Automatic annotation (TrEMBL):
This is Signal recognition particle receptor FtsY. It comes from Pseudoramibacter porci. GO terms for cellular component: cytoplasm; plasma membrane. Its EC number is 3.6.5.4. The gene is ftsY. Belongs to the GTP-binding SRP family. FtsY subfamily. It is a peripheral membrane protein.
Amino acid sequence: VFKKMRDRVSSTTKKFTEKINHLLYYKELDEDFFEELEENLILSDISVNTAEMIVEELQDGIKAKKIKTTESVIEELQNIMIQMVDIPEAPIHFPAISLIVGVNGVGKTTTIAKLAQKYKDEGKKVMLAAADTFRAAAVEQLETWASRIGVDIVTSRPGADPASVVFDAIHSAQAKNADVLICDTAGRLHNKVNLMNELNKLNRICEREKGEYNIHNVLVVDATTGQNALMQAKTFNDAVPLSGIIMTKLDGTAKGGVIIPILNELKIPIEYVGLGEKAEDLVTFNAKDFVEVLYQ
Ligand code: GDP
């Protein structure tokens, strides 16, 4: 898994390594050095806030440890970044209800299919709920996946109230003793307030009806959108408390750096990353390994 991540996220790591290695040309740890460092962090999709925080901590570390060489600075930088991403995992506890939220096009449906396949392979009884009732195509797409993977799905006619789909799905999951109910949700962003209210309502229904089930809400973000992923994580986390994030399309993008501010500023674990379109292309993520990979 680690090797797969290193191979596939090569564009992120190559770009980052090039930028950081350029700093080795500096003879002195002067203002220019720190300015270029901060600029490079921001260009690597590490947010302005997190980049500033990193540089400040680095300057403190240099003083405290009396660091003199650029090589040692780079090492200290890696340590600081590892500490920043070291946040506790929040694993899913079964039986579980999982609302999968995210903007349209990020890879939500594909990710739901990948998760369903993964849980099924682990011997879990999986059920899907097609609660994105605004797009008929989304319901069809999920139905196709459900029959291909061989799991139950609860749907309704297009335009139905998503809350009633989720309500029915929870009771069906409970009646059939499903281990996990994965709910697809709408992701139109052109009316943000409505979308957030709707997701909030779905979350309240899950909380009210869950019985012995545990709620595990997951946001799907697209790595190729860079800083937008951080913004989306903030917005969605205000509407539904997120247990984790899945970042898709980390294959072939130089924008994976946004993982660092997501972890540092929101303290929400990245559970998996998508490294392709196939079911096996969902891999468990380890933030510390990711930072180490950045430096190879
Ligand atoms: P949704 O609108 O959020 O439900 O998005 P879809 O699941 O329909 O995915 C949108 C597109 O992204 C599809 O063409 C997927 O095959 C593709 N996709 C999803 N995840 C990944 C990934 O991890 N890597 C790559 N390269 N493509 C992905």
